[in-house]
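Lab manual, section 2.4: Encoding a predicted structure.

Procedure: take the sequence of the chain (314 residues), apply the prediction step described in section 2.3, and record the output as structure tokens. A sample record is shown.
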Amino acid sequence: MIKRIVLASPRGYCAGVERAVDTVEEALALWGPPIYVRKQIVHNVYVVRDLERRGAIFVETEEDVPLGARVVFSAHGVGPAVHERARARGLQTIDATCPLVAKVHAEARRYAAKDYSIILIGHAGHEEVEGTSGEAPHAMLLVESVDDAERVAPPQTERLAYLTQTTLSLDETGEIIEVLRRRFPAIEAPKREDICYATTNRQQAVKAMLGAIDLLLVIGSGNSSNSNRLVEVARSRGVAAHLIDDESEIDHTWLVGVESVGITAGASAPELLVDRVASWFGERGVEEIRPQHAVPESVSFRLPAELRRQTTAS
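Recorded output:
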């Protein structure tokens, strides 16, 4: 029988996601629908459907946007080729790339300008990896695992650096970096860690609560990298964990023999989904629903320049 629910802190929206969602909402308020968005603005089904109801139209590529229309680029970032094709179509672009992802793009450009080979640690096919790779496609080698790190063969090692996707597992990425440093002692690291503060904080919050729970529910969509990493963190330490979009996906068989349930949310999941999942347990007689010791986050980002200029002009 479930006796208590523990809410992870921090959880849910990070500053980059909040900025991206606010960007689409502000664009809809300023210009009205339709506002086109290339890919999902953030990887969360609820957020995307909510914005669709308000008039956002999500498309796979910039070439699906009508000539001259207004389009928002997602928080995951895009490569230079996307910007070039958008300009060729006369699109009015609003770049909602997370500033922390943009930092990785800048690092890629800097290393490529100095003729470095760049090892990018990340997941193939993820929009963030595609955007970062697009900054230096001829210099980039993708590494997804420790095995990849053992096998990767850069064309030269005199000028070699690594970068990482911002939403990776801290532990797994650390293991990959150890292998790269063993094989290539002179490999250069980013001046500041690429894995973002929100990914780091949410993984650490999960680790801190594992001793007090029997089961972890992670609220987040299946294509959310940082949400999947939270599930992996718990499972790697012997605690059952499941990824759910909302309360409708809770399987009663998961709760058999469980007394304490932890709830967290990936960086793309809004707090109202946490409230709904907590309420689901409250409606079933669970009286103790308590937050983990709060870890404050004070990071915030300004809206894209295109919106700030329009707001100022108005």
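Check your result against the sample. Residues 72 and 94 are 5 Å apart (CA to CA).
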